[in-house]
Design brief:
alpha+beta; eight-stranded mixed β-barrel; three-stranded antiparallel β-sheet; 12 strands; 36% helix
């Protein structure tokens, strides 16, 4: 929970009182439960759920819940009109879509954003993959710019040459199977105990470690990061699978008390073991080119003290739990990023700092 200037926040939603904040948390948990149990991209499910909320069988008490209902109306209007017998319901759903679009423009101007609808079933996994591909295309230009900067500044005399390093024995056979392997990630007490690869930011969205097409994808490092000579922030992506595979377990960090019991991340490269301590868990959104909101997934290397402070301040504004204020510019940071499933284009992220 963050409290700033007398307001409580969940992601980018602000609440004036603690009571309103708690209602927001209740809506988050309720929506997470709905998305866990139901596939709202199924037209029949969407219609039934829409009518249950419309009739008051399911209630929300915060703007987060209102945003979810507006998104559900969008789904109903887009996919389910043929299943609705009540014309008034159709018109209402379509009206909510128009209202939602107008609200969206207001939210953009105020930098108040909503969060992602991510794949709970196979169809939703495919939709999420496409969205992550869109995000990837946005960062390609940044990668090219970074490469140009490196070429202009020349080689760093302190830079480590990977060819001089020795691969850890436990990873030798896996590296032979897949030369894209760069490490292994594990969080005790969770199902996250997986190999990590690095290639481009699209291939492992829908390919397994073995290189086969698979909706689960694989855990991969942002192609702008360097695991041998770590950038300020190493970003690691994975799908939020309903089965809990890949980064599906990260949504547990939205539960109060879970962070305190699962603070440590073991992220070892193929050359050395590294351990990180989680400092913040937050909710954000994939921003598009015409949106000036902060993009946590574009923070790779701090070019100045101001860059680093901007990152910390924005992470704290987006944080649900934890405090990024403990970070210093000399820290090596890792950010785990996955989809979050209660409003459109949302992301759940976990920020940790290296401790050894």
């Amino acid at each position: 929970m963050q409290k700033q200037k007398g307001r409580y926040t969940i992601g980018e939603y602000s609440f004036e009182t603690f009571h309103e904040y708690r209602e927001g948390q209740e809506d988050v948990r309720k929506i997470e439960c709905i998305n866990k149990e139901l596939n709202i991209q199924d037209p029949e499910v969407a219609v039934r759920l829409y009518n249950d909320i419309r009739s008051g069988k399911i209630t929300f008490k915060s703007p987060i819940g209102d945003q979810f209902f507006a998104h559900l109306a969008d789904v109903v209007a887009d996919k389910s009109v043929g299943l609705l017998e009540d014309k008034a319901v159709i018109e209402e759903a379509e009206g909510k879509v128009k209202y939602q679009k107008m609200l969206g423009m207001v939210f953009i101007s105020l930098a108040i954003v909503s969060f992602a609808v991510f794949g709970i079933a196979s169809l939703r996994d495919i939709i999420t993959t496409r969205k992550m591909q869109q995000m990837s295309s946005q960062v390609q230009q940044n990668a090219q710019d970074n490469q140009k900067n490196e070429e202009q500044t020349g080689d760093n005399p302190d830079k480590i040459d990977a060819d001089t390093l020795t691969v850890l024995p436990e990873y030798e056979s896996l590296l032979q199977q897949n030369p894209d392997m760069v490490g292994w990630i594990k969080i005790d007490g969770t199902d996250i105990d997986l190999p990590v690869v690095q290639r481009d930011n699209t291939y492992y969205l829908d390919h397994s470690f073995e290189g086969k097409e698979n909706a689960n994808g694989c855990i991969f490092v942002d192609d702008r990061c360097d695991i041998v000579n770590p950038t300020t922030n190493t970003i690691v992506y994975g799908h939020n699978m309903k089965s809990g595979m890949m980064f599906g377990g990260l949504k547990q960090y939205l539960q109060e008390g879970y962070l305190d019991a699962h603070k440590m991340i073991q992220f070892s490269t193929i050359y050395e073991h590294r351990q990180y301590e989680i400092v913040a868990v937050g909710l954000s959104k994939v921003q598009y080119q015409d949106d000036n909101s902060y993009r946590y997934y574009d923070f790779i290397d701090a070019q100045s003290d101001e860059d680093f402070k901007e990152f910390v301040d924005n992470i704290n504004q987006l944080a649900v739990f934890g405090d990024a204020g403990v970070l210093t510019k000399s820290d090596k940071i890792i950010t785990l990023s996955t989809c979050n499933s209660y409003t459109e284009d949302g992301r759940l992220f976990v920020v940790a700092k290296q401790i050894n």
